[in-house]
Amino acid sequence: MTFEAIILAGGFGTRLSHVLGNVPKPMAPVAGFPFLSYLIRRLEQAGVSHVVLATGHMHDVVASYFGSQYGSVHIDYARETSPLLTGGAIMNAMRLCLTEDVMVLNGDTLFEIDFRQFHSAHCQSNANVSVALRPVEDVARYGAVELSGMYVSHFVEKGRLQGVGLINGGIYIINRAWYTSLVMPEAFSFEKQILEVMSGEMAIHAQVFENYFIDIGIPEDYHRAQKEFPMYFESATDLFLDRDGVLNRLRVGDYVKRCDEFEWLPGAREALALLSRRFRHIFVVTNQQGVSKGLFDVADLESIHRLMLHDVEQSGGRITQIYVCTDRSDSLSPNRKPEIGMALQAVRDYPEVDLHRAVMVGDSLTDMQFAARAGMQAVCVRCGNAMDDRLRDYTDLFYDSLLDFAQHQD
Fold first, then answer.
1. CA angle 99, 100, 101 (to 5 degrees)
2. C-alpha closest to that of 41 among 360, 400, 384
3. Residue 71 — very low, low, confident or very high, per pLDDT cuts 50/70/90?
4. Which of 393, 333, 405, 342 is nearest to 369 (CA)?
């Protein structure tokens, strides 16, 4: 799947101004991170490597946070100096895209759709525009979308209808060549002057998703996001864990070389018991270059891991498999984190594992880079350690400990 994405990130956030203060709406902090970061991370997990942020209001706040790279995603900016409205903002951003189809997202809405499935259905439809729809209990706030088969027949303005129905989820796939060939004024509304006109021609392909949806445009939903985003990982099925610093106490400047040097972190075994009820598989992935340095041997390492597995079982938890890379950091090994060889080995051993539906919990930059490269959701547990500022570029959520994370998942 190859496509680029545009995120409309120029919103003023008028209805949130008394809540956010001097912060643009897409940068509204949710569970410790700008709302926009969740959208970029979701695109990264779907394989998108280039995102154009269509900015305007308080552009510098957005650009200073994300820069030209966020995780593995390259970021460009299509900055408007005067209001272009949604259609003009998309047109301006399209000039920085190269792929045949471009996904467009609203910067104040998180809709957890399967981007791959959406893109595949769009390609099969041969339509110039596809829209992701969401069923809701009451369409009054959003406006309704009516279908004829798999095509939009009518957009109904908000307030005109009430009750159960479909709404526009704010995610589109647009054929780039077609869109940039349109003759339109510099500033125009994508919704009014493109979508509503096209709906009468039955030209907009639609796909319905029932996934998690939230629009933070009003204060009550913004506050709801603060409570719900810590459960952002509820769709994940498998868990990867670093060892030292996450499960057991890290020996700074040294290695755990023998069983008597292994010390569980407070709450770690309790956390594994909780996480064993939540996740299908739990894998430990650990770099252990002390073996290659001759400080201890594989037999010592296996003894430590037998002790770990025994303690975990006695505590009511489980670990599916422990993967180890004993190569040195200067070896360029494909198995040593942040490279993803150990994750790929888990997929070979357990073919049901989908790395895009997995969570990696670690305490270091290499752990978070490992998660990003594998397409996993990334959790950093600080365990009282000082935090590298670069972690923020790769991490979805921070917790104080593995137990803190587990208690939010149980």
1. 95
2. 360
3. confident
4. 393
CA distance 16 to 218: 6
Contact 285/242 with Cβ under 8 angstroms? yes
Could you tell me the two tokens for 75? 């970021």
Query: How far is it, in rounded angstroms, from Cα 356 to Cα 240?
Result: 12
Residues 6+ positions from 322 with CB-CB distance below 8 Å? 243, 283, 284, 286, 305, 308, 309
> For residues 29 and 21, what is the distance between their CA atoms, to the nearest angstrom?
11
Q: Which domains does the chain carry? A: 4-228 (3.90.550.10), 238-409 (3.40.50.1000)
Residue 10, class by beta-carbon neighbours within 10 Å (0-12 exposed, 13-18 middle, 19+ buried)? buried
pLDDT of residue 234: 58
pLDDT band at 409; cut points 50, 70, 90:
confident
CB of 103 within 8 A of CB of 48?
A: yes
Average pLDDT over residues 3-18: 74
Task: Give backbone dihedrals phi and psi of 101, rounded to 5 degrees, phi first.
Answer: -115, 145
Distance CA 69, CA 306 (A): 41
Number of residues written out for the chain: 410
pLDDT tens profile 100-113: 999 999 999 999 88
Position 18 pLDDT exceeds 50: no
The two three-digit tokens of residue 388, written as one number: 């590298």
Nearest to 45, CA basis, from 374, 371, 355, 375: 375
Which pLDDT belongs to residue 230? 54
Per-residue pLDDT tens digits for 131-147: 999 999 999 888 999 99
The set of residues, in sequence order, having a beta carbon less than 8 Å from that of 339 and lying 6+ positions away, is 333, 370, 373
Q: What sections of 95-142 are H helices per DSSP?
A: 115-125
Supply the residues annotated as catalytic: 242, 244
- SS3 of 146, please? strand
DSSP 163: S
| Count of Cβ atoms closer than 10 Å to residue 174 Cβ | 24
Closest CA to 48 of 77, 19, 70: 70
CA distance 255 to 230: 33
What pLDDT, in 10s, does the model give residues 210-269?
988 988 877 778 877 876 765 555 568 899 999 999 999 999 889 999 999 999 999 999
Its pTM stands at 0.63
